[in-house]
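Homework help board

Subject: predicted structure for assignment chain

Our instructor gave us this sequence and asked us to write out the predicted structure in token form, then describe one feature. I got the tokens but I'm not sure how to describe them. Can anyone check?
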Amino acid sequence: MTIANRSIPISHRSRRRLRARESHRTTAHWNIGVIVDMRDDLFTVVGEQGSLEARVSFSCLVVPALGDTVSCLDAGANGAWIGSILARQARTGHATVAPLHLSTGPVTWNVEGGLAIAVKRFSVDAEEFHMATRSIDVTADRAHVVVEGLRFIAGAIKLIASTLSSAMTRVQHFSESHTRSTTGLDRVSAGHVEVEAETLMHLKSQHTMVDGSKLVKARGGQIHFG
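My token output:
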């Protein structure tokens, strides 16, 4: 059995492509350095291998800041990218580190098991805020809500409190049935009180007093006392 060894000729264009690929492979390397300057979307990173201009990679969600120690991928002529932030120095005169800013663009977190956040202070500043959940439980010692307009729609509302105080310019209440029970004093103080019943108005108590400093007037088709 004879095995023929045939060599396949390689063109000059293919050779150039192979050399370019090999050059890219050999020149691309990771570099660790410190950010010393920022201009628009370019960051100047100084490390043991010198200085380079790098951009933030798509996978780096945190925006770098001055003084950060970062890990950069130096691809030579193709550019350099900051892949991750390794360390962040504390601010001058403060014990806390610099604030963390996420990069621009939509960020979506999909967590199957659950997400727990334990912080000393939590703040959300957004033009639009949307939350959809099957159940929500909020526990707070104090709550302060300031809104220009509030529309609340619920199937059933249950409010339990020791003290309820409200100050409103105008109140409108519409219901098919309204029942109120007060064990102590129920008092209404107003400049003018008007009670109107379409069919029947019933007042019942052990002692009933009607006091008019100037006039007491009763008018009806029939008036019965006793």
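Reply (TA_rk): Your tokens look well-formed. For the description, you could write something like this. The longest helix spans residues 12-27. That's the kind of observation they're looking for.
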